[in-house]
Automatic annotation (TrEMBL):
The keyword Membrane applies. This is Binding-protein-dependent transport protein. Residues 1-37 are annotated as: Disordered. Residues 1-15 have a biased composition (Basic and acidic residues). GO terms for cellular component: plasma membrane.
């Protein structure tokens, strides 16, 4: 090795002069591509991003800034002007009214709907994936058919069924149809997630003598946590933002949810816009916080990559 390193360069056969030593090539350094250099700024993309920022930011600015105005100031100055005399009177008015009662009802509806959807979609998805019978395929097709039925088209039959069951003007009247219309998408998500589980894992559990219930609880549920999180977030968002079922199936103030509570600031001849938008902001905050922590699971599950 030392003889090779200290060997002098051989003489050129034509000139008789010693050839210049070749520069050692550094290993591991990538070659620079031709034409690489500082990239020119993309002005059209920057302009488009700025326009999109204005489109998204302007409504948010109007929403938040209006909550610090008085009703007269909102009418005189306009929605885009800065609040000249900021006030927290709107927040005090909303929080001192029935807001916490509406919030409690909404939390109950959201939590119960999410629990029902998770339990049913996990069991139905597991049966569809593992049964592999004609009956399971028919059940899965029925759930997929639910994707094509809008809730507005069946609101009258739902109203009649709820009335016959003597559930009208109760929170259960809102929970049951809301959970039912969240099930088709949830079953579709979890069925795709459970199909990504390796068949060898099912076979190893069966060789160990595990029954269907043990396989579901010990294997399928832990391996489908991302899909279950997606289903939970999706059903919670659907229940939190629900408006039609609470409007049609409830009547008393004690059973109102946040979406119906906004009517407290809408009169026959006028609308208290600052108080109305303050209630909107306060009703957005809880579910927005949940979405911030679970948005990754929601997106991954909807893309069908949450099974592994």
């Amino acid at each position: 090795m030392t003889d090779v390193l200290h060997q002098r360069p051989e003489a050129d056969r034509t000139t008789g002069k010693a050839a210049p030593p070749s520069k050692p090539r550094r290993a591991g350094l990538p070659r620079l591509l031709k034409g690489s250099g500082p990239r020119r700024p993309n002005y059209p993309a920057g302009l488009a991003s700025l326009i999109w920022l204005v489109i998204v930011g302007a409504p948010l600015y109007v929403l938040v800034a209006t909550t610090f105005r008085t009703r007269d100031g909102y009418i005189d100055d306009g929605p885009l002007a800065l609040p000249t005399h900021p006030t927290l009177a709107n927040y005090d008015r909303v929080l001192s009214s029935h807001f916490f009662s509406y919030l409690g009802n909404t939390l109950v509806v959201t939590a119960v709907c999410a629990a029902i959807v998770i339990v049913l979609s996990v069991t139905v998805g597991y049966a569809v994936v593992r049964a592999r019978s004609r009956m399971s395929r028919r059940v899965f097709q029925i759930f997929l058919l639910g994707l094509a039925i809008p809730s507005q088209a069946v609101i009258i039959p739902i109203y009649l069924v709820i009335t016959k069951l003597q559930l009208y003007d109760t929170l259960l009247a809102v929970i049951l149809p809301t959970a039912a219309f969240s099930l088709p998408v949830s079953v579709l998500i979890l069925a795709g997630t459970m199909r990504d589980i390796d068949e060898e894992l099912y076979e190893s559990m069966a060789l160990d003598g595990a029954g269907p219930t043990r396989v579901l609880l010990r294997l399928v549920v832990p391996m489908s946590r991302a899909g279950i999180s997606t289903v939970g977030v999706y059903s919670a968002l659907h229940a939190w933002n629900g408006f039609m079922f609470p409007l049609i199936l409830t009547q008393s103030r004690s059973n109102r949810v946040l979406t119906l509570g906004l009517y407290d600031y809408v009169g026959e001849f006028r609308v208290d816009t600052p108080a109305l938008l303050t209630a909107v902001v306060l009703s957005i905050v809880p579910i927005f916080v949940v979405y911030l922590f679970a948005r990754r699971q929601l997106i991954n599950g909807l893309m069908g990559v949450g099974g592994k």
